[in-house]
Amino acid sequence: MPSAFSPASSMFAQVSSKWSLLVVVFLVFLVLVSPAKSDEHQILMNLKSKIEKSDTGVFSSWTEANSVCKFNGIVCDSNGLVAEINLPEQQLLGVVPFDSICGLQALQKINLGTNFLYGTITEGLKSCTRLQVLDLGNNSFSGEVPDLSMLHELSFLNLNSSGISGKFPWKSLENLTNLEFLSLGDNPFDPSPFPMENRLEGDLSELRFLNQLSSLHLFENQFSGEIPEEFGEFKHLTELSLYTNRLTGTLPQKLGSWADFNYVDVSENLLTGPIPPDMCKTGAMTDLLVLQNNFNGTVPETYANCKSLIRFRVNNNSLSGTIPPGIWSLPNLSIIDLSTNQFEGPVTDDIGNAKSLALLLLANNTFSGELPSKISEASSLVSIQLSLNQFSGQIPLDIGKLKKLSSLYLHDNMFSGPLPYSIGSCVSLTDINFAQNSLSGKIPDSLGSLPSLNSLNLSNNKFSGEIPISLTYPKLSLLDLSNNQLAGPIPEPLNIKAFIDSFTGNPGLCSKTDEYFKSCSSGSGRSHHVSTFVWCLIAVTMVLLVLLASYFVVKLKQNNLKRSLKQNSWDMKSFRVLSFSEKEIIDAVKPENLIGKGGSGNVYKVVLNSGKELAVKHIWPSNSGFRGDYRSSTAMLSKRSSRSSEYDAEVATLSAVRHVNVVKLYCSITSEDSNLLVYEYLPNGSLWDRLHTCHKIEMDWVVRYAIAVGAAKGLEYLHHGFDRPVIHRDVKSSNILLDLEWKPRIADFGLAKIVQTGEAGDLTHVIAGTHGYIAPEYAYTCKINEKSDVYSFGVVLMELVTGKRPIVPEFGDSKDIVNWVYSKMDSRDSMLTVVDPNISEILKEDALKVLRIAIHCTNKLPAFRPSMRVVVQMLEEAEPCSVTNIVVKKVGERRKDLVIRAQNFGVKSEPELIDMMESGKELPELNRNLYPYVEPYSTGILKVSDIHTIYWEQSGNPTGHPVVFLHGGPGGGTTPSNRRFFDPDFYRIILFDQRGAGKSTPHACLDQNTTWDLIDDIEKLRQHLEIPEWQVFGGSWGSTLALAYSQAHPDKVTGLVLRGIFLLRKKEIDWFYEGGAAAIYPDAWESFRDLIPENERSCFVDAYSKRLNSDDKETQYAAARAWTKWEMMTAHLLPNEENIKRGEDDIFSLAFARIENHYFLNKGFFPSDSFLLDNIDNIRHINATIVQGRYDVCCPMMSAWDLHKAWPEADFKVVADAGHSANEPGIAAELVATNEKLKNLIKNGH
């Protein structure tokens, strides 16, 4: 039958069919895409709603009417779907709804870095499976990072300084094989070994899988262990930043061999071995920073050709040998820091080619030879520090060519010959120290022409002749010319109390006023009269010249001031309600109203027509050279057209400050080339005035303390009261002003930055801060942050306690108040000598509390300084107040109770008590409250065997009575709360993690791990810390170890505090691990029991040992969790859920259970079951206290009772309503009180 369709119609049907299919597909696409776009709009509007605050205009385009592709910060792909969210540095404050935004199906990039975002990074992030870039750095998130293993395409991950904490999901990084950039620095992660795969499975580092990495940043965390050798094989790696951790071992020797390696910073670790030789193999390296480690060997010669190098810092290591000559002349090098090593040999002539070199730091080595004259051609030098070496010969004659040189330290060498006259041409010099050399000849009077000279130390040389009168011109804070061969009169302006020791050891000097020196009028003969006449003639001439110069300078200043203020247009921005006009202010800014000069400008007192007083700061020119000296008609500030926006932004920040302890800023008045800031006027001047000048007053400690707290609160507000910290930059006592009631106000905050804004050219020579207050790290970083302010505030606290200036001659070689105070920390009596004698005796102990806070603030390592928020808390806890006292008026009243209390405070007999009662003395109550948290002032790793290192830390009072805390387990490790049992003002608190526990390595290791090994470790630590003897504190297993250690070394123990007694006898182990305690905790026992098959339950310790030491990791972890939870569930009388959760932490549980089981299986490695009771006689003489909870299930009271019966001399305290844990309120209170009792016995010499 013929077909009904022709070929043409058939073809048409096929075409129609295809078009129909396309139409259907298109319609489906529209159906799918339209809702998607609608959803995306809703998702982004939801994100906007979560942002509480942002820069103006950020979300102005985010409207219902606009397409998402037109939203500011949003980039769409070719299909019109959101591909990127780019909102960095937009002042965003709020919570990020990750669960929502990861619904953007095409999203490839999230960049929200450098904002003020908070909240947690939720599990919803897992849904962003197409994400390639995630930048959340520099925010304020909290909590842990969720699993990232689903983000397979991620190439860039930045969580630097984002506030995240807890455990990081290292395992999930295995799947991120495209990762090129990883930055996790400066986050409070839980302390952990460097992420090694062998903590989970296999034997390679987890990061080995990330072989595409080009940048790795894990700085300022708490990682320990070794750097994986595989890093040396990463062929794309160009940046490695691991500074401020606890890393050990060597730096991979192939590091940087493959790519254009740019920089490495592994500073402040515990690394050893040689410096890898090929990190500059391709000539691209800019920064080699390995300072403060234990590197050894020589500097590889390959770096002599590294012309790209900018910073070369290898200080504080154990490096040796000579420096390859080419390093001195590298053209781009700005810092060479080789200090505190064992280098030798000369500095070569080619250093003159180092045109970019700013810092030459070679102190504390054995360099020798002459300082090459070519050094004067290194024209960018700002600081030369060559002290404590063996340099000899003359100081180069052309040293004066170094116009930027600010500090010159050549002390403790063998330099000889005269001091070059040209040194007076180093116009930027602020500090000179040539002490302990063999320099001779006359002191050049050109030193007097140095406008910024602050300290001059020429002591212990062979200078002769008279002291130049020109030395009276600079405003010196420190002058030391002692132990030379100087003769003639001491210039009168220098013959003051502040310089009383500056001229000793010069028999030829004379004085008209100081009885220590011979009188200048005692000479006789013609030569004496001639010299007197010549001296007077010179003096008169100099006075006339100075008066004439002063006249012209004053006139020039007046003319410049008038010219700068006569502007046609002024811009007045008010920040508060004002009752004055700009004209009143401008008319009053004149020389006769000048009341002060600061680092940022002149200050004028303005009295308004209403009688109100104001202070007006006229800011220094940023490019004026010698500030305060108007030598030309140059405008006071560079033209505002070049810096208006930055200046206005800074002033806007300052104007937002509202705090009772911060000076009020009323307004700013600006013209084209002038800037005035109008503040409230504080009539009582500055703290500096009241402590150190002719305006000094007698301030008792209560007033000083109030000033310290108020100033701290003001600084805390600047650091923590804003979206971003306001860094003061120049904290000092002269910037703390006092109102009529002596309440402090912080002044000049942020002005250093305003003055520097718009500074042209190289900023290396701009110093932030004032000499004596500047944090030590500024010398090598040239950067400041909040911790820099904390250091400076610590110096202010020292001023308040000691009454001394930051730099005075009596400090000698210590140079400044910080080093001087540190040198007095060897004993409490020594520390008391630094307290201002004007502080009453009864309050000196309170002053010492604040001094210890100052010591924390001035820690050399910024990371160990407290935040200002913590400083305020510490100061508030140091309030000078009388604790609850009871005055005993009758001999017979409450005699028994008072005898006990008196004995707690060192009164050993009733007659002593009667004497106290009759004298009317007061008996304070013992403190029973846990002390506030304190941070360690030092930490370290001590190698105690071929395979073991132990972590240790010290907190509290560095010169206090030492006490060592022995933790339980023995696999438990220490926690910060362990420090709280001890008064940090009295005790030097030492914590350490026993072998295999906590931060000690190797983790959970049983080899070479016995009780006797631990006893040896305690002794090694004591010797390492140079402690003659110490108090020992231990609970649970810690009480076992404390008894064993004390019996082995009784002469090293001053007192014992034992809690939850565990004598490690079979009946104790059987009670807890073989079913006894199950009668009280049957529910908890079931989980512990059921992990073990019935046929192995004859000995649970044995059965668990097999599993805890299994070759299978998961078997180990399962056993560890069960073992740990059993103990945690029984440790408290009332359940403590937080403690129980520790059993879920595999890392903690493995060490806790495995090591504990190891010791119990081996019966504590004691030779007999009753070993500790049998050897009580060894320690019977030691002052000891036993604290025991009556309902302790882990270590039942039978053990404490047996110890008490064997050792009745020890105090025995039973807490009636407590179980085992030291954290139970009754136990904690008794432990604190016991330490207080021992403290008072020690104070009273018993």
Please characterize this protein's 3D structure.
It is a single chain. The protein has about 1250 residues and is of the alpha/beta class. Among the domains are: about 15-155 and about 170-175, Ribonuclease Inhibitor (Leucine-rich repeat, LRR (right-handed beta-alpha superhelix), Alpha-Beta Horseshoe), CATH 3.80.10.10; about 560-680, 2-Layer Sandwich (Phosphorylase Kinase, domain 1); about 680-880, Orthogonal Bundle (Transferase(Phosphotransferase), domain 1), CATH 1.10.510.10; about 895-925, no CATH class; about 940-1065 and about 1170-1245, Rossmann fold (3-Layer(aba) Sandwich), CATH 3.40.50.1820; about 1065-1165, no CATH class. The strands form eight sheets. The protein has an 18-stranded mixed β-sheet, with no helix packed on it. A twelve-stranded parallel β-sheet has the order 17-19-21-23-25-27-29-31-33-35-36-37, with no helix packed on it. The protein has an eight-stranded mixed β-sheet with strand order 48-49-51-50-52-53-54-55, with helices on both faces. A hairpin with a 5-residue loop joins strand 44 (about 735-740) and strand 45. The longest helix is centred in the N-terminal third of the chain and has 44 residues, at about 5-50. It starts with 6 loop residues before the first helix and ends with a helix. It catalyses: L-threonyl-[protein] + ATP = O-phospho-L-threonyl-[protein] + ADP + H(+); Release of N-terminal proline from a peptide; L-seryl-[protein] + ATP = O-phospho-L-seryl-[protein] + ADP + H(+). One of its GO terms (cellular component) is plasma membrane. This is Proline iminopeptidase. Its EC number is 3.4.11.5. It is a single-pass membrane protein; Single-pass type I membrane protein.
